[in-house]
Design brief:
mainly alpha; 55 residues
């Protein structure tokens, strides 16, 4: 049986987006944070609308 080589997510992330602190990596991290925040705001709005029978 062939042995598989495992690579950590941190190593792969560094290879694709650059090291922490680089401009490309900072832009990706910022974009991800904005998208996560937008998701949670949208979920909060959806729950409030459902609670008020608006949806």
């Amino acid at each position: 049986m062939t042995k598989m080589n495992m690579t950590s997510l941190d190593v792969l992330t560094d290879e694709v987006y650059g090291k922490v602190g680089t401009a490309k990596r900072d832009a990706i991290v910022k974009q991800i944070k904005e998208e996560v925040n937008a998701y949670f705001v949208g979920e909060a709005i959806r729950k409030m609308r459902q609670a008020q029978n608006l949806t």
